[in-house]
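Form 7-S
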Amino acid sequence: MVADIERDEHAGPVPDSAWHADAESRAEKGRVEIFNATRPGGLDGWTMDQDQYQAVHDLILEMLDDHADPDGTIKLQAVVNAAQDRYGNHELFPKGRLTNYVRYTKTDMEARCEVERIPRSSPQRITRWRSNS
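Output:
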């Protein structure tokens, strides 16, 4: 038998109502509802443009796949730095600061069970969602 993986409090899943709200927001407004597993109902209370979200989402997964340490983790700051390098002058991000985009997208991805933070890691480290099996 495999022991349960210790999960950070930000790990999902979120309720079905959050997924419904996200689908509606994407269809009607072109915006992603940002999930947060620590909030009632699983919604953080704000949205992000779908194209901005997808760019950051894909970068986070790329960093985990191509630049993670041998244990499969990466420092969140390394992801922020890579996002800043790639998108700091991109038209999708006219103000040029990517820190919040990365942090909120990462929190959303935790709630969607795509990535997870390593509990008590300092500096914060993330990995792909780990199965209990």
